[in-house]
Each structure stands twice: as structure tokens, then as C-alpha cells.
Write a structure and sequence with these properties.
mainly alpha; 16 helices
Length: 325
């Protein structure tokens, strides 16, 4: 079996080769090459290949569908950056900043179609099922993005609504990757579902941990500014529960920081963090992360593959969450 590092490198090599193919209109494809060159964890293609590798060793047969998911993911990032008016992606100017919004939208659309082109290169007998799963997942990701945007103007978002939003926006694509890998390897329907559920739970744990670390993480290991979600009043697990579970006095103080337009960033981060801790949302987040983590482990245990073959996948999932056990 291949390690996650070996599979990531194979994905990287394939993406580089595809990005460097000669094109008739290089100005259209340069932004695609650019965003792919920014790197990233390559979680989705790696998970697809790891799921396939549970059953088969000829992982290159699953490479084009794996690349398709990475292209789709980067297409969503390109358009998200336009909608969010973001300036940087992985420390480099976003496509719409290096070029402009029209280029980002058009090249993003081309990347979306490239993902279909690569997906269609799978085994013909699997194509209908693969397309059905991909289309369902793509629609769900768009629905999650819609909900995330809608939440910006609401202060009554419930925890259940938030969890459903991150399931759609983040988790279903991880789940899709795992199920596709199993599908391509002729796994049983039960195993496909167990791996899909495993991906959903890992994705939920991963996103909730991101919310937690944005407040309580260490910049040196988290890799981005601590308190960024607080400064932009982003609806996260932390803020939603703080608004719903705080006392009247705490809620008034929290709302005053949400309404403030003139403040010292460090003071706002420190004050809101103190409120979060006083309300206990830090403990609530850690408890929910542990629940999704345990649920993911149970789903993987149900996959009818020898335990030693599942260890690499479980170790990879743990590494995403920084878990030791």
C-alpha cells in the first residue's frame, strides 16, 4: 500500500503535468496553472486514492477522477475569493487580484469543466455512477456556500443550521472522494456508505477544530492569524453558541463588539475570547469535535477490509486533526 505522502506526490506530479500542457489560449489557462501552483494539502485526491488503495494497488487507474476533485475544489476557491473579496490565497494574491474578477470567473468556469473532463476518463462502466455522485456533491457544495453567505446577515443561526452548512460546504466533498475511490475499486455498497460517512464525520470534526483554533490556536502551528473570524464577525460554532448560551449581560457585551466599527483589533479579539471562555463554548467545541472523531472511527471500523490496510487511512485522518490517539 502507498503512504499518504506518496499519493500526494503522485497527485502533485499529475497536476503539474496537466497544468503545463500547451494551450491555444494561454491567457485563459494561466490563472488555472497559477492557483494549482499555490499548493495545498490535496486532501480530496489523496483520500480518493487511499480509499481505492484499500482494495486495489494500481492507484494510477483512479488518478484522473482524483485530479478532477482537486480541480473542482480549486474552482470553488477561485470563485469564493471573488465573493469574499479576499486578497490572498495561501500567502499569494488571489486570482482576481493578480488579474481581475472577470478573468477569475471565466477561468474558474473553465476549471469546473476540466474537472468533468478528467472525471469522464474513469472506467466507462463506472462513469454514470461517478457522474451522479459528483453532480449531487457539487450541488450540495453550492448550497452550503449559499447558506454561508446567507448567515452573514443573520444573528439567529442555530448550531444545527451551522453544522448542516459546514457539512455541505466542506464535508460532502471529502465524503465524495472516499466513496468514489471505493466505487472505482468495486467495493461493496456497504463499504462505500461507511467510507462516505467516515468522510463526513472527519470533515465536520476538521471544520469545528478550525473554528476552535481560530480562537485558541497557536499561530506558529495554526498557520494563520488567530482571531480572524472574530474580527470579521464570522458565524462560527463559537459565535453561534456564545450568542445563544450567554447571559443577558454577556450577550449585550458580545453584541457591542459585533456592532463596533472603531476598535483596536487586539482588544476585540481578547474581549470576545474572554466571553467565549466564560460562556464555555471552548469546551462545547472540543466535546463536539471528539464526538465526530469517535463517529468517524466507528464508520471506518465497519469497513470490511483487514485492519492493517485501514491503518494508513486512519493515521492520515488523525494527522489532519493533530490527534495522537
Amino acid at each position: 500500500m502507498y503512504t499518504s505522502e506518496e499519493l500526494m506526490q503522485r497527485v502533485e506530479n499529475t497536476l503539474t503535468a496537466l497544468a503545463n500542457e500547451k494551450k491555444t489560449r494561454p491567457e485563459l489557462y494561466a490563472p488555472i496553472q497559477y492557483i494549482l501552483s499555490l499548493g495545498g494539502k490535496r486532501l480530496r485526491p489523496t483520500l480518493l486514492l487511499m480509499a481505492y488503495n484499500l482494495y486495489r494497488d494500481d492507484v494510477d487507474r483512479a488518478m484522473m477522477p482524483a485530479v478532477a476533485l482537486e480541480m473542482y475544489h480549486n474552482f470553488t476557491l477561485m470563485h469564493d475569493d471573488v465573493m469574499d473579496r479576499a486578497d490572498f490565497r495561501r500567502g499569494k494574491p488571489c486570482v482576481h487580484k493578480r488579474w481581475d474578477e472577470r478573468v477569475a470567473i471565466l477561468s474558474g468556469d473553465a476549471m469546473f469543466l476540466f474537472s468533468y473532463k478528467r472525471l469522464a476518463m474513469c472506467e466507462p462502466s463506472k462513469l454514470a455512477d461517478m457522474l451522479a455522485l459528483f453532480n449531487q456533491t457539487a450541488f450540495e457544495v453550492f448550497e452550503g456556500q449559499h447558506d454561508d453567505l446567507a448567515f452573514e446577515t443573520r444573528n439567529d443561526v442555530s448550531e444545527a443550521e451551522y453544522v448542516e452548512m459546514i457539512r455541505l460546504k466542506t464535508s460532502v466533498l471529502l465524503a465524495c472522494a472516499l466513496k468514489m475511490g471505493a466505487m472505482l475499486a468495486d467495493a461493496s455498497l456497504d463499504d462505500m456508505q461507511h467510507l462516505y460517512d467516515f468522510g463526513q464525520n472527519i470533515g465536520l470534526a476538521f471544520q469545528l477544530q478550525d473554528d476552535y483554533l481560530d480562537v485558541y490556536g497557536d499561530f506558529r502551528t495554526f498557520g494563520k492569524r488567530i482571531g480572524g473570524d472574530i474580527l470579521c464577525n464570522k458565524k462560527t460554532f463559537m459565535l453561534i453558541n456564545a450568542l445563544q448560551k450567554s447571559s443577558d449581560a454577556q450577550r449585550r457585551e458580545l453584541q457591542s463588539w459585533l456592532d463596533a466599527t472603531d476598535y483596536v483589533p487586539e482588544e476585540k479579539i481578547a474581549a470576545v475570547t474572554r466571553l467565549y471562555t466564560a460562556v464555555g463554548v471552548d469546551k462545547m467545541a472540543l466535546k463536539r469535535i471528539d464526538e465526530y472523531y469517535a463517529a468517524a472511527l466507528e464508520c471506518l471500523r465497519r469497513v470490511s477490509v483487514a485492519e492493517e490496510r485501514k491503518q494508513l487511512l486512519w493515521q492520515f485522518a488523525k494527522s489532519l486533526l493533530g490527534r495522537k490517539s
